[in-house]
Amino acid sequence: MEEAQYEVDLGNLMAFDNHHQFASPPTSREEVVKEAIEQGTKLVQAVADALFNLPSTQDPDGPLVRLPAPTTRLPREKPLPKPRPPTKWEMFAQSKGVQKRNKEKMVFDEQTGTWKRRHGYDRVNDDNDVPIIEAKATDEPGTDPFAERRKEKKGRVEKQEKNRLHNLKQAQKAGALPSHIQLAATALPIRGTQEKPKKVSKDELQNVAGMAAVATASGGKFDKKLPGEKPLKHEKKYKKYLPAVEGSGMGAMEKQQTEKVLNKLVSKNSHEILNVQKAVNMYNVKKEKRQRKQGGNSSTSGKLKGNRKPFKKTSKGGSSKKGKSK
């Protein structure tokens, strides 16, 4: 009877208790937290019981169930995107009843007798593959038909780009700019829609030019300098190493480096180097160790000489010990 009062939405794995009331008004926050934990435990148990009542399939990881469709409509995190306003061509096509139809990607090329792409690389009817262009009656003498064709193509591309920017401006005014263009629009705003970007200062340009100059394998050492280019202000200092191959100047360099290290040590630890008392003590300690060592060696050698016994040769070529006479 207690579980019947819970409203369970398995699609969202949620449970509600619309009839819950406090027995007495809470007097502290601890009582509210305790009551919330108790009720939350009951709701989670109700969701678990409802899950185990669903038909399940066996799996190596355990039983699996298919959740039903959710019954509770949850609010969206972000508002619904606004519809994009129609472009000029879409409005014209709608007024004239023009319907969009999908064209095939491959088209038969009569010149080469093969199938080629409609657009892109190695496309059909490519201007670069046309060796001869027939002259028209309206063509002026002395004009290059290939240059005219390239000029017309460039004009079509510029017109298409102008129309695209116009459509983006209209979409931004309506607040329906595509999501994949919003980030680019904040960094590089569309012309005529936002304020002009701040003018880059001279120092910033020099910093960018300096980073670009040293962005090579040699750090810009062997790059050709531009006319009027100044050396970098933040030029890096690199550690200099001795040459790996012996040469005429290698000995002088090693001597100079050794003197530099010694002078640094002397200047840093001069109070320890000029400590006469410490030097005398060390000399006395070493002298005592040497005398003790020499005395020990002489005593051991005398003992060995006193314990030595003579040997007597035998007729068989062997040797035998000869004892001392008392």
TrEMBL record:
Keywords: Nucleus, Ribosome biogenesis. The keyword Zinc does not apply. It is found in: Nucleus. Residues 54-88, 119-165, 270-326 are annotated as: Disordered. Residues 146-164 have a biased composition (Basic and acidic residues). It comes from the Eukaryota. Pfam families: RRS1. GO terms for cellular component: nucleolus; preribosome, large subunit precursor. Residues 305-326 have a biased composition (Basic residues). GO terms for biological process: endonucleolytic cleavage in ITS1 to separate SSU-rRNA from 5.8S rRNA and LSU-rRNA from tricistronic rRNA transcript (SSU-rRNA, 5.8S rRNA, LSU-rRNA); ribosomal large subunit biogenesis. Involved in ribosomal large subunit assembly. Belongs to the RRS1 family. This is Ribosome biogenesis regulatory protein. The lineage of its organism: Eukaryota, Viridiplantae, Streptophyta, Embryophyta, Tracheophyta.
